């Protein structure tokens, strides 16, 4: 789960702490896990901007501001990932099991690499 770790934060992390993780992973968002390591949401740069515009303190824990609605896949499927990225403009897709345990993440870079591979470039 090494690759996945840099894309994850705990829902107790503050918005400010999360900004540092987002800045370091180059994916413009993170997967948010609760204390039981279950995926509870995704937090993006857009969410950061919305919290700032709403004058929410940057020391607020994510659990108070994340939306419980997020896009995910149940299996690593690059075609489905491409469709989600194209349709919704997202850059990171969590792959979860039926209990919302994070199995892996698919980044926009993973999808681009896959497209280059299947197109023979």
Computed over alpha carbons, the radius of gyration is: 14 Å
Strand order of the largest sheet: 1-2-3
Number of individual domains: 1
CATH architecture: Roll
Category by helix and strand content: alpha+beta
Number of helices: 5
The H-and-E topology, N to C, reads as HEHEEHHEEH
The major β-sheet equals: 3 strands, mixed
Kindly state the number of beta strands. 5
Mean pLDDT over all positions:
94
- The best one-word shape is globular
Low-confidence stretches: none
Using the coordinates above, name the CATH class.
Alpha Beta
CATH superfamily: CBS-domain
- Bin the strand percentage: 15-25%
Distance between the termini: 28 Å
| Percent helix range | 25-40%
The CATH topology turns out to be CBS-domain
Short description:
It comes from Thermodesulfovibrio yellowstonii (strain ATCC 51303 / DSM 11347 / YP87). The protein is 38% helix and 21% strand.
What does this structure look like?
This protein is an alpha+beta fold and 121 residues long. It has a single domain, classed as CBS-domain (Roll), CATH 3.10.580. 38% of the residues lie in helices and 21% in strands. It is built from five helices and five strands; from the N terminus they run αβαββααββα. The strands form two sheets. Strands 1-2-3 form a three-stranded mixed β-sheet. A two-stranded antiparallel ribbon has the order 4-5. Helix 4 crosses helix 5. The model has no long low-confidence stretch (mean pLDDT 94).
Write the layout of secondary structure elements.
Elements: H1 2-5, E1 8-10, H2 15-25, E2 29-33, E3 39-44, H3 45-53, H4 78-88, E4 92-96, E5 102-107, H5 108-118
Parallel strand pairs: 1-2
Antiparallel strand pairs: 2-3, 4-5
Helix pairs in contact: 4-5
Pfam family, one: CBS
Organism: Thermodesulfovibrio yellowstonii (strain ATCC 51303 / DSM 11347 / YP87)
Protein name: CBS domain pair, putative
């Amino acid at each position: 789960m090494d690759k996945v770790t840099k894309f994850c934060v705990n829902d107790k992390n503050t918005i400010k702490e999360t900004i540092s993780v987002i800045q370091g992973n180059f994916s413009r968002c993170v997967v948010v896990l609760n204390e039981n390591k279950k995926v509870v949401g995704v937090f993006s740069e857009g969410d950061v901007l919305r919290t700032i515009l709403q004058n929410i303190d940057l020391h607020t824990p994510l659990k108070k501001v994340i939306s419980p609605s997020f896009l995910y896949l149940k299996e690593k499927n690059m075609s489905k990932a491409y469709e989600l990225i194209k349709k919704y403009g997202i850059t990171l897709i969590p792959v979860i099991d039926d209990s919302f345990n994070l199995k892996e993440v698919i980044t926009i870079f993973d999808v681009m690499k896959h497209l280059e591979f299947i197109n023979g470039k």
